[in-house]
Please model this.
Amino acid sequence: MAREADQAIEVETLTKRYGDFLAVNDVSFNVRKGGVFAFLGPNGAGKTTTVEIIETIRTPTSGKVRLLGMDVTKKKRDIVPRIGVLPQEFSSFDRITVRETIQYYSRLFCCRNTDVDGLIELANLKDKSQEQFKNLSGGLKQRLGIAIALVNDPEVVFLDEPTTGLDPRARREVWKVLLGLKKKGKTVFLTTHYMEEAELLADTVAIISKGKIVAMGSPDALIESNANYLGLTLKSVDENVFGIVRKMGFAPVQDNHNGITVRVEHTDDVHKVLNAIKDAGASFLGLDVRKPNLEEVFLKLTGEALREGPAEGVPE
Amino acid sequence: MSPRVIGANLVVRIKTFSREKSAMFFTIAFPIILILVFGTIFMHQDDMSFDLYVQDLDQTNASAQLVKTLELNGRFKITKVAPAINATQYAKDNKLNLVLVIPKGYAGSLLLRMMLNDNTSVTITSIYNPSSTSVSTKMQVLNSVFGVMNQRMSGKSPFIRSVGTSILNKKYRFIEFFVPGIIAMTVMTSSLSGAVNVNAELRQKGVIRKLSTTPITRTDWILSNILYQFILAVLSTIAILLVSYAVFNVILQINAWLLVFIVLEVFAFAGIGMILTRVAKEAESAVAAANVIMFPMMFLSGSFFPLEMMPGFLQTFARILPLYYVNEGLRASMVFVDHMTALRFSAIIGVFATVVFIVGILTSKWEEASDSTVPPSCHYSRILSLCHYRLACSDAGCSHRSHFQVQRLAISTAFAPGRGLREVLGAQVSTIHPKKVNTLFPDQSGASGSVSDRINRKE
Model:
């Protein structure tokens, strides 16, 4: 079927159990060829289990998974040369340099002439190419891992939490590499628990929670359909503003910087609120109107926070 | 099987080896140091002499003559003890294991015996420390010297004479028996710990997981490891032979048996290593298990000293140790040039190697993730040191809990009252931001003495 040929990944009623624990619960989705597909969810949601089943290194308990039209449980040998994988917490041989590591992995795939310099360039590792793996920072290691995932010029690239544990700057560096990858038109399957990452890179986002996909679509569509409101924040407001807004039928939330946040349906409502405050002669110093992001979508859909506490990449 | 892949692996392994100083040391330098140390200790073993303290209470020409005779025997270095001293006290004070006391009247008794040819005898007292290990040998030598003297005085020629005929063409020195043992020991340690280290460490680090998404097969991987271990074994054997030749002038028979035994030994111990990495899940416990196997084997299988020195039951035990057959097989081929024994022992170790290696292949799973019964979130923790994480994981049966709960549990497990979290967790804690700890322990945050306060106080 022509339609099926467009699909890079087809997952049907996939279930994976570890003992009594249901890690992936009856999940079905398709990933089209080309573009970036992101699996967004907190730790332990079942992202990696699903990805590793598709990568052929874990076996499903039940369900069907096809990658490039091939059954992942039967066609490992045919699938492996056509995919590239950045595993979670990528690691390599400590004493081997960046260039040697890329060469090593390209030798594992067949005789194809890998453009090692091109990969080093793509991963922005030019001045680190003679550095041993153990001396690389977390971000550099991940970038090397991405370069390695591309040694066989794969049709589908899997990136399992490529930026987890990186500081914000290193994360941006990795994103730069990923945007370059996206430009090349590869099919990329990304898992992440950073919604900035999903919003920035993904064409399609699947939100996964407790082993189930709770929503799927483009980031904009997800926000549109699940969080169709605006967040209006007023800073340094007078004491009576809270009461004024509440009387209008909204539910303002007070923060500890003398500000309030109101959730409104429309831009018209913003005007209404501001006018009411003005009419009452009250004042405020700052104003911020914000469209919700995927995090709020996630909160609404699952009732749990996407990340546990502050980002793992702790500010320096 | 792909020679290209095996070659690529070999290149990586050899580069790693050449850049890793400690690996170089344990594979090449350590056996050489052993050779040098033991070779020097036992260099003069065959013409060993004893210290002998003699107190001459007689102080006559005849007694001086006796002391002279003992000295001329060549086995004793005589030190004289002044007659005025209490010999027992002297031995105690100076920690001597044997003091010989020639009694007063020695010359008189001797004269009586010579002149009258009666049965006058003289008693020479040995003051000795029975707990000393060398004293019995010393006394045996002494008694044999006295025996010869007594026999001579009787004026008759001895009835039984003994003549020794060596079963060897050449007299061998201790070092020549020692070198094959060191070769066997080195090949064992490098292939067993090599197999354990590479598999356990790379598995724990996730390199194996990455490799399982490439076309490399388990056969390629195992073969390249074996080949690498073999190259190392040959390298260290050459180093051992060269040093023992250069320093101690050890010349051993080098024939095909040497190669046969090295190959079989590499397979046998790499196989054991593969089984261990499968049985012990964590890198550290696999290494510990390898040590538990290696060390007793090293000492009990006759690598360092002859089996005859051990009690009977240990000798029997040694015969079930694979290293014993390598030791004795190598000695048979390199020292005694006894091809039949070498053949017999190589057959035994060959059967052992085949069995162990096959079991090793069967138990080691290449696709280690596919049969894993633990969800990935349990494998990947950058928050806590692995051991605490593991502890919490096994306690909590972490598949039933969220990642968050396991983290929290891990922190509380590691957190002993009175000690800072940083102290308990070491450097790992630098990846935990105090805010993070507070979210993990919401009940404590803000309170004085909160977890984060206590971390910071310790900094």
